[in-house]
Design brief:
Strand order of the largest sheet: 1-5-4-3-2
Helix content: 25-40%
Largest sheet: 5 strands, mixed
Strand content: 25-35%
Oligomer: single chain
Structural class: alpha/beta
Amino acid sequence: MTLTVKMLVDKVKLEVIYGTEELLQKEITTSDISRPGLEMTGYFNYYSPERVQLLGMKEWSYLMSMASHNRYAVLSEMFKPETPAIIVARDLEIPEEMIKSAKEKGVAVLRGRTATSSLAGEMSWFIHAQLAERISVHGVLMDIYGMGVLIQGDSGIGKSETGLELVKRGHRLVADDRVDVYAKDEETLWGEPAEILRHLLEIRGVGIIDIMSLYGASAVKSSTQVQLAVYLENFETGKVFDRLGNGNEEIEFAGVKVPRVRIPVKTGRNVSVVIEAAAMNHRARLMGYDATKTFEERLTALINQNGEADD
């Protein structure tokens, strides 16, 4: 996915000190962010000019302690045509030598108001998310009680209709039909809609409907963490389904494993209510309460009690 300096400016609300329209359209190609402390001393052996360069109080203080000609020499060496931008945190003063070097090498100069660590964290999260490889999966992604639930299932089983019912019950649609997922980190999976399908839901017999127009902004969400996968499948007599909830099935997307439950579908069953219950039950498990474990403990206690009575 393409990420430009302008997108970073808009997302993190940075001030453009110097930057033409062309420079703001320069692409950011790596999620790594550099704090060029050693470079300030003139050590450029392992310098990575393709990264966004971030100056905090320490780097800025050292830079400002230099004589003007030394400051210009260091900045001229630091600024390269492939450098996306240099960012100064904490609303610190921008030295004239920085502007001069930026104009000569064609690098945007930006400024943030927040503390350096906070700014670095926010930029790192956004850049990584934008540059992460997307994998498209078929299904409906919903935000249910603040939890991202990916609904998949057999063809024509009613995934989109279930999503519409969940919207009517107060939950939020993230994506229908095509869900783009990516690994935010080794344990976190994130999902979002394809741009062309944003806020749209396809209902057989009705066509395409715009959820935001019909139900309002509170009925949609731009992205969410995928925390639970639900697979809807046709009910068949004799087919074995998990009744106690101790199957512990998982599915893997982009190298991240997500717990999955299988829900049988048949006429008269309110699938949306069952999915709500599955989401709440999963949240309870994350908080340390496992109803299946509680049942097994009670069953074991009852068996032991009956055994003692027989003795």
